[in-house]
Design brief:
single chain, about 270 residues, alpha/beta, Ribosomal Protein L4, Chain: A, four-stranded parallel beta sheet, two-stranded antiparallel sheet, elongated
């Protein structure tokens, strides 16, 4: 009986996810939609994995420049404040002791890196889970970036108003391709709206946004990145370099590089 219940819940969850694999297109009425790829927008949301990726991204953004001086770094304090005996005071060897005012700091922060590694497959899985959560909630929309002939904030505001009056009050992440500059300049002036390129979007940005708005180019690029297809050109380039190195190693030596015959060497 418990197995049947779990199976029923899983089936219901799959059906609800399948219904949300479409995103409306802003500015074209209520009928036009864009289909979302199931490989990137129908994945399971793994909360511990997403939490780990968010922590890694936020830790990588830290400068790590906090610094304090130990007693050896503070200037002064080379002379003994008073003699060892006969004054009635406590013994003191330096005025830069950590227990003195103006002295050094014990175990204070030092400049360091806070980054830690998250495997590439885990990063992509967390990205798919965050995107799938938005797809399940129906908080993804697509816009036509070509409609912006010039930067115009009012046009961008009207597009966001198509999603409802409450959409402008919640944090919105707009993902645009680098060449869609006019649309990016239009959206970045709006309050509670962040504009990023597909290459710079992180799991923390997606989780922190209440709604996502993509251009078609950015949607394709982020889908390929979440599915791991964006790494194919890099892999092929590495394979080509390995092949060229192997070919050069297998090539016979040229006439200049070949050793001289024994007779010519004797002469």
């Amino acid at each position: 009986m418990p197995d049947a219940t779990v199976k029923t819940r899983a089936t219901a969850k799959t059906r609800s996810t399948a219904k949300t694999l479409e995103a409306p297109v802003l500015g074209t009425g209520a009928g036009k939609t864009v289909k979302l790829e199931g490989g990137a927008f129908a994945a399971r949301f793994n909360e511990p994995l997403v939490h780990q990726s968010v922590r890694a991204e936020q830790a990588a953004r830290r400068r790590g420049t906090a610094s304090t001086k130990t007693r050896g770094m503070v200037s002064g304090g080379g002379a003994k404040p008073w003699r060892q005996k006969g004054t009635g005071r406590a013994r003191a060897g330096s005025s830069r002791s950590p227990i003195w005012t103006g002295g050094g700091t014990v175990f204070g922060p030092q400049p360091r890196s806070y980054t830690f590694k998250v495997n590439r497959k885990e990063q992509r899985a967390a990205l798919r889970g965050a995107l799938s959560l938005h797809a399940q909630r129906g908080s993804i929309a697509v816009l036509d970036a070509a409609a912006f002939a010039a930067p115009k904030t009012s046009q961008a505001a009207d597009l966001l108003d198509d999603r409802g009056s409450s959409a402008r009050l919640a944090p919105t992440l707009v993902v645009l391709a680098p060449e869609e500059r006019d649309a990016a300049l239009s959206f970045r002036n709006l309050a509670r709206v962040a504009v990023l390129t597909p290459e710079n979007v992180g799991v923390a940005d997606i989780v922190g946004a209440a709604s996502l708005v993509f251009s078609q180019t950015a949607l394709d690029a982020l889908t390929a990145r979440a599915s791991g297809e964006a790494l194919a050109p890099q892999a092929s380039a590495k394979a080509a370099r390995r092949t060229s190195k192997t070919t050069k190693a297998a090539e016979p030596a040229t006439a200049a590089e070949q050793p001289a015959p024994a007779e010519e060497a004797k002469a």
